[in-house]
Structures are given as C-alpha cells and as structure tokens.
Automatic annotation (TrEMBL), chains A, B:
Annotated GO MF terms: 5'-nucleotidase activity
Location of the active site: D7, D9
Similarity comment text for this entry: Belongs to the 5'(3')-deoxyribonucleotidase family.
GO biological process: pyrimidine deoxyribonucleotide catabolic process
Database matches in InterPro entries: 5'(3')-deoxyribonucleotidase (IPR010708), HAD-like_sf (IPR036412), HAD_sf (IPR023214)
Record's protein name: 5'-3'-deoxyribonucleotidase
Amino acid sequence: MKRIAIDMDEVMADFIPKQLKIYNRDYNENLTIDDLKGKKLRELRPHIKEELRKYFLDPTFFRDLEVMKDSQEVIKELSKSYEIFITTAAMEVPASFTAKYEWLKEHFGFLNDMNFVFCGDKSIIHADYLIDDNARHFNRFMGQGILFTAPHNINVTGYVRVNNWQDVRKYFLG
Amino acid sequence: MKRIAIDMDEVMADFIPKQLKIYNRDYNENLTIDDLKGKKLRELRPHIKEELRKYFLDPTFFRDLEVMKDSQEVIKELSKSYEIFITTAAMEVPASFTAKYEWLKEHFGFLNDMNFVFCGDKSIIHADYLIDDNARHFNRFMGQGILFTAPHNINVTGYVRVNNWQDVRKYFLG
C-alpha cells in the first residue's frame, strides 16, 4: 500500500482566516486573503515579524482552526487505498503540540494517532507522496511532492499542484 | 551524510530507575532492575497495567529522567559525521510532548530541534539507522535497526545489538 504524508496548516487546517482576524483586530487593519497572495503575513509586515510569531505561542491558537473544505471526506476515502500519515512541522511551534494533537483527534478521529508525526525537517518522512503548502519541504523529500495551493505559494512553480481537496481526490483516485 | 535516528526512552533517557522508584513507593515493593529482565513492568504486573500507564499521564513524568551514561558525548561526536534525528514514539503518551521537548533542549541543546520527531509508527522514519530498545520498530523500518540493550529486551535475538553508548561509538566510529 502506498503512503501519503499530509501537512496540517493550510492543507487540513484553515490557518489564514484566524490569523487575519486576530491581526486585523489587534492592528486595526482590514487585510484580506488577497493581500496575502504571494507572501506570508510575516513577509507582508516584516517589521512586526516577532510580534506575529507570538500569536503562535498561545497554546490554544491551533486548537479551533476550521477544517479545510472536503479534507475529511477525501482523506477518509484515500485511507481505504493508501496509508495516511499526518506530518506537521510542529517543532517550529512547540507550544502547539497538544492543540494540534487534540484538533486531529477531534476532526480526523478515523485516523490512527500512531500515524501522526510532529517534526521539523520533513526529509525524515518516509512516504511516497507529501501534500504540503510549503515547497521547501520537497527539496530533500524522497517521494513526490504535491503543492497544495495557499495564498502565499500561488506564484511558486515547478511542482505538481492541487488547488483543493477535490483536486487531491482526482490526483489519487482519478 | 548518512542519517542515524535515535529513540529516547531507555536509549537516551534512563526511564527504568524512575519507574521502579515510583512503583516501589506506591505499591510497597522492592523490585529491582533484575526483576525486569526479559519483560516490561506492565508485563510483570499485568493486573495493574492500566494503573501503571497512568503514571505517564503526569505531564512531568518524562521531564526529569536521568541522561543515559555517555549518550551526550557519543551523540555529539556522531553528529560530526552523521545527520542525527531523535525519533520518539511520543504519540503513545501525548501528555509527554512538552516534557520530552524540554528534556531534549536541556540535555541535548547542541542538536537542532528541527531534527526532533514525535511519532508513533516508526516506519515513517527515513534514515539509514535506527537505534531503539523496542525491536518491533525495526520490522517495517527501511534502514538498519540497532537494538539498544534494555532489561526488557535481553532475550530478544536476531538483531544487531549494542549494550551501551560506548558500543554505539564503536559501531559507527570504529
């Protein structure tokens, strides 16, 4: 059985709406997803990069993210024909460990938690495919990288790309 | 550069002395490491297996384990010639995430935390070697398994075995 590794933030978990909501509230702005096309918020507002990072130090930040549209149904379907592992760069935000684990158990309870992986450098992942919104993880990845479209990566080229979970379904299940 | 994945409990962290100390205190017994030869505590006292598991639900249990003799020096030495990843089955004890992370930062601060991996099923690990006290992790592991001697595994045969960190040094650095 071939194995698919799947990233969490901006792939399974809809990270941007919450980040924008909190940012707009605290900085009295009205940024939209369109403003984030081609870059991350920390690249758009580099002078407060460190302050933006502090949001993630709140252990609950990752607990109530919305589930990405269709991800539950498609991953459930994929899990009949593929081994599914969830591989998130949680080491970048150690405060997120528990929230990420609980979020997965709540929304993807049909997956085996022995297949959850909290890592940093994803070259450690032994899988045939990696679905991720950060192309840098594909550089040393052994298998096929699949770039999941997020605002920040829309100008990135040179990778297999899926725009949403229906695209993922088509790619793997035809 | 070849890559070595290293387990934590009973390989880097000396788990048994603390487990025995707490058990003996709470159950008014005098078990020693000799009693654990060939089995884990939960196999020696199967009728209280669930109660024993509860010790690990204390988020601090893994925080103050002793560092295994010579592990710091040898891992530091190995890290000059090999990529080192720490791969622990933390998903079996989600309450341990923070303690395990902090323990690694305290005692192995010279390692990059992007190379820490909290997982369950270790077949997800892409490495050339895996040093682990649980031989079951070698079954689907892609590389060479190296069994680190622990009381529970002394009767296990069929694997490359190292008895301590000086043996690890010899295996990799001759």
